[in-house]
Amino acid sequence: MLSVADRSRDLDDGPDPGPARPINWDRLSASEAEREWLVLNKWVDWLRSTYNLTDFVVPPYWHRHPALVWELSALHLYWLDAYSGCARDPLNWHREFADSRARLREWVASSGEMSSITWPGESGANTRHDADFVLFVADDVNRRRAAETARHDDGRNPR
User: Fold this and answer.
1) Which of 2, 21, 119, 156 has the fewest CB atoms within 10 Å of its CB?
2) Using CB atoms within 10 A of its CB, is residue 145 exposed (0-12), middle (13-18) or buried (19+)?
3) pTM above the 0.85 mark?
4) Domain range holding 142?
5) Is residue 156 part of a domain?
């Protein structure tokens, strides 16, 4: 099994994916979900380190909190649009980012996942983040594949 870092590097080698599109996490196929999880994880890591975000804003296990996933996914889409070849308005993205950070802080506070955990590579690091992310994505992809197989089987074998 490839590590998250190996899989994320592979994403840089492909062609330009074209215009950004909204991600509906509830409707992705298994293969789409795997790719989107890896892309989002890589971007969240970049966002966190670039803007020095604390775990009060983006905790290491953000992927286990649906509200954080949807918020970060929307913020990523907005960032892609703001910094595309036909950049819309990067300053507007920063205004939205400020609003987004407030929502993220609120959801993190209400989830109970506060700063008891640090990110990998930081002092006192909990290196379980990468391993947990890989297991989380594998479970999500396997669940989606099983649902796809069940839908496919139901279509071939009507009752």
Assistant:
1) 156
2) middle
3) no
4) 22-148
5) no
